[in-house]
Structure formats: structure tokens, C-alpha cells
Write a structure and sequence with these properties.
Blueprint (H helix, E strand, L loop, with lengths): L5 E5 L5 H12 L6 E7 L5 E3 L8 E7 L5 E3 L13 H5 L2 E5 L20 E3 L24 E3 L23 E3 L10 H5 L7 E3 L21 E3 L17 H10 L2 E3 L20 E3 L7 E2 L16 E3 L7 E2 L12 E3 L27 E4 L13 H4 L5 E4 L3
Parallel strand pairs: 1-2, 2-4, 3-5, 4-6, 6-7, 7-8, 8-9, 9-10, 10-11, 11-12, 12-13, 13-15, 14-16, 15-17, 17-18, 18-19
Length: 388
């Protein structure tokens, strides 16, 4: 039976030399497996990978260390084994909330051979140059890259920035300075990317061609941006994009933007299961957006439209959605629904005990006898939330 590794946390701001003294016995016993090492709140302006070369760590976390350079050799070293314990064992590396301005100032990153997840979130990175990752030994191992909370703009991420990351599945660009998605750079990840997140940026529009063809994409997060409208052809303007989204995209998050109008833009994403439009400025839901008698979004499970300004929902607006489990319309301005608003929706499988949710909390629902026909048209085990 194998022995599971353990973790070491150094978070009291001790001098780095003191931490190294503490780690010395572990460096001398490489058979001891360390699940993770977390060093935080300790000033380490420069770190050389040879300093920790003998540590058998799977997950290395360097947080809030004023680190700006991650070098290969320290000034006192003359040679470094390319097969060190550290660079062969680390699978997850987090260098967060530090002072890195350029990834090229961290040449040690290229050495790791088994790196599957790299986080450089919360630094001061201003640009990603062409071929930045092309010389990483782990470029074909890396599955997750987090560049959130930096100073990146769409023009500072060069078109070949992600070249070589052939198996990258998750890319985080949240909390940067993007005015639009870096389309050309992201397009280089079309064979592998499954999750793309660019929330809390300055994206103010989505035009045809802004989202590159990503045939494996399952989750797209564009929440907390400045988007006010979605072009009706946003998901269909590129033929291959239409096909790819229809076959893959399951989750779409456009919450807390400034969207005030939606037309029939989601129908090409026929396998969509979860859509979040919470916290926008939407006033009207047409019967072409999600449902309708000929709805193509038959796999939708959850729709969140809470905290908008919705006053009117078309008849059949949520019709023809047999898999739907949750509709959140809380905190809008709705008074009633037409009788066929939910026709053919909330269909309850004989083999499930799930209760579907219709959240109407915070709406001025009119419960007069002549305004409640829609309630009796609901099928399945629907729980209506709210006070009427």
C-alpha cells in the first residue's frame, strides 16, 4: 500500500532562509512524498529553482511573496540537473499575487516536465508574446492555465501567444483589461480548449467573429462585462462555429453585464444546458429566445434571469423545454404569464424524484382568479418560490 503524501504550509512571514532550513531534511529524503508546499507572505523577490530542486513536491504554491523573477540558477550555483526531483514531480504550480511583469522573467517555468496546471494569477503581466509557451518542456502536459488578475489587454496577447499548448483544456483570463476576446490567440487552442473564462473585463460588445471556432468548448464565461446587446448571428456567423457550439457548449455565463435586449441568438447552441443571464437589464423575453413550439434548446436544464427588469414574457417563451429543471425569474417586474408560457416544459420523468423550481421571488405577481391559468398548466413537480 502506498503512503499518501502530506502538506507543508509556511504562512507566518518567516525569512526564506529559515524556511529553507526547515525544508532541508525533506530535501535529503527524496522518498518522502510531499503533496503540497505553500509559502505565502514571505518576501522572495527572486527565486531560483535549484534552491528547491531536491524537494519531491506535487503541488507548489508561492503566494504574496513579492516575487518578480523565477530563475534557473542562484548566484551561488554553477550547475543544475535537468532531471531534478522538483521539476519532474510538480504537477500544479501557483505563483499568485506576486510582482511578475513578464513570463520571460521566469525561465525556470520552461523546465518543469510534468506540469498540468499553471496559475500566474494576480501578478502584473502586461503582455504575452508569440511562442511564450512553445519552449515549455510541459507544453504537451499543460491542461489548465490561469492568467487572471493581470494587466493584459486583447492587443497585448499576441496571435501566437499560446502556440504549443496542444492539450490545454482550461484558460482563465478573468479580471484583466480586455476590450474584446483575443480571438487569434485563442483560436490556436481550437483542438483542445473546453473551458474559457474572461469575466470582469471591459468587453462591451460581441460581434460575429469575436468568438473563435472552438469545437470542444463546453463552458464559456463572459460575466461581469459591459456587453449591452448580442448580435443575432454571434454564434452562427462562422459555419464551423455553429457546428462546434451545437456539438459541445453546455454552459454559458453572461450574468451581470448590461444586456438590455436579446433576440434569437441561442438556438444554434442546441446542446446548451445551463445559461446564466442574471443581473442584466433585460425587459422582455420573446418566444424565440429559448422556447417556442419548435424550440431547438431541448437540453436546457437551468435558466437564470434573476435580477433583471423583465416586465413581459411572451406566450410559449419557455415552451418545448422538456429537460428544464430550474427557471429563476426572481426580482423582476412580472405580474402574470400567458397560459402556454411553459407548455411542454417541466416534463417529469417517471424514473426521477427531482422537483423543478420556478423562482418568482420579488415579483408583483397578480393572483386574481382570471390571471392564474398559467399555474394550472404547469406539469411535473414544480415548486413555485415567492410570496404572492
Amino acid at each position: 500500500m502506498g503512503i499518501k503524501g502530506f502538506g507543508i504550509i509556511c504562512s507566518e512571514g518567516q525569512p526564506f532562509e529559515q524556511i529553507l532550513d526547515f525544508l532541508q531534511p525533506f530535501m535529503e529524503r527524496p522518498n518522502i512524498k510531499i503533496e503540497f508546499l505553500r509559502i505565502e507572505n514571505t518576501p522572495i523577490p527572486e527565486l531560483s529553482v535549484d534552491t528547491l530542486a531536491s524537494l519531491p513536491i506535487r503541488h507548489l504554491i508561492l503566494r504574496n511573496n513579492t516575487l518578480s523573477h523565477f530563475k534557473v540558477l542562484s548566484s551561488s550555483s554553477t550547475e543544475f540537473s535537468i532531471t531534478s526531483t522538483l521539476i519532474d514531480n510538480v504537477e500544479q504550480l501557483e505563483i499568485q499575487n506576486n510582482e511578475i511583469e513578464n513570463i520571460l522573467d521566469c525561465p525556470a517555468l520552461t523546465l518543469f516536465t510534468n506540469l498540468q496546471s499553471l496559475s500566474l494569477a494576480g501578478n502584473k503581466i502586461t503582455e504575452i508574446l508569440d511562442n511564450t509557451f512553445a519552449y515549455f518542456n510541459s507544453r504537451k502536459m499543460l491542461q489548465q492555465l490561469d492568467l487572471s488578475e493581470n494587466l493584459l489587454s486583447d492587443t497585448s496577447i499576441n496571435s501566437k501567444a499560446f502556440l504549443g499548448l496542444e492539450f490545454l483544456q482550461k484558460l482563465f483570463l478573468d479580471k484583466n483589461q480586455l476590450n474584446k476576446l483575443p480571438t487569434k490567440a485563442i483560436a490556436k487552442l481550437s483542438d483542445s480548449l473546453q473551458e474559457l473564462f474572461a469575466s470582469a473585463n471591459q468587453i462591451d460588445s460581441l460581434e460575429p467573429g469575436d468568438i473563435p471556432p472552438l469545437p470542444r468548448l463546453k463552458s464559456l464565461g463572459l460575466d461581469v462585462n459591459q456587453i449591452s446587446q448580442l448580435n443575432s448571428n454571434i454564434f452562427t456567423s462562422i459555419p464551423s462555429l455553429c457546428i462546434s457550439f451545437a456539438n459541445s457548449l453546455l454552459r454559458l455565463d453572461l450574468s451581470h453585464c448590461k444586456i438590455n435586449y436579446l433576440n434569437n441568438c441561442f438556438s444554434p447552441i442546441s446542446r446548451l444546458q445551463f445559461i446564466n443571464l442574471r443581473g442584466n437589464k433585460i425587459k422582455f423575453i420573446s418566444n424565440e429566445l429559448f422556447g417556442g413550439e419548435n424550440s431547438k434548446l431541448e437540453f436546457l436544464v437551468s435558466i437564470d434571469l434573476g435580477q433583471n427588469q423583465i416586465e413581459k414574457v411572451d406566450n410559449f417563451a419557455f415552451a418545448g423545454l422538456p429537460q428544464l429543471q430550474s427557471v429563476d425569474l426572481s426580482y423582476n417586474q412580472l405580474e402574470t404569464f400567458d397560459p402556454n408560457t411553459f407548455r411542454g416544459t417541466f416534463l417529469q420523468s417517471e424514473n426521477t424524484a427531482n422537483v423543478q423550481i420556478l423562482d418568482l421571488t420579488g415579483n408583483p405577481i397578480n393572483c386574481s382568479p382570471n390571471r392564474t391559468d398559467w399555474i394550472f398548466s404547469l406539469r411535473g413537480k414544480v415548486r413555485i418560490l415567492g410570496r404572492f
